[in-house]
Design brief:
alpha+beta; HIT family, subunit A; 6-stranded antiparallel β-sheet; 3 helices; 28% helix
């Protein structure tokens, strides 16, 4: 049974589900930072997904990245799987702007996380609700 890594659970806010992946929002308002986590057990590397799931993860990542670029007027998107701290396979999709707090450096460890207010999360959820396709299910929260 799929279970979210406790560190991801602690540091993120649930948004909803694509067919394969849970979409999370990193609770750091310095950057619109989203994370896709395939709902599969004991997977830490891309190659551990079967081919169909690999393709689905890439579709979801691409759809999310395109949506975020347009919706958040991104100058650049950072897309990565690292897993050095959290081994559960997860894909970061981070909206970057030339005037963000860390530009042009990576976001990791640059500035302390600044948690979102409930109002800020509601605005992001509504923005996404307007643009995500029918294959996305929002979680209440």
């Amino acid at each position: 049974m799929f279970a979210l890594d406790p560190r991801l659970e602690q540091d993120t806010l649930p948004i909803g589900d694509f067919p394969l992946s849970r979409l999370l929002l990193s609770n750091d308002s310095n950057y619109p930072w989203f994370i896709l986590v395939p709902r599969r057990e004991d997977v830490s590397e891309l190659f551990q997904l079967d081919v169909a799931d690999q393709l689905q993860l890439w579709r979801e990542t691409t759809e999310l990245a395109e949506t975020l670029k347009d919706s958040f007027d991104a100058d650049k998107l950072n897309v990565a799987t690292l897993g050095n701290v959290v081994s559960q396979l997860h894909m970061h999709v981070i909206v970057r702007k030339c005037d963000d707090a860390a530009w042009p450096a990576p976001v990791w460890g640059k500035h302390p996380a600044k948690p979102y207010s409930a109002e800020e999360v509601a605005v992001i959820r509504e923005r996404l609700r307007l643009v995500l396709t029918d294959d996305f299910t929002f979680l209440e929260g």
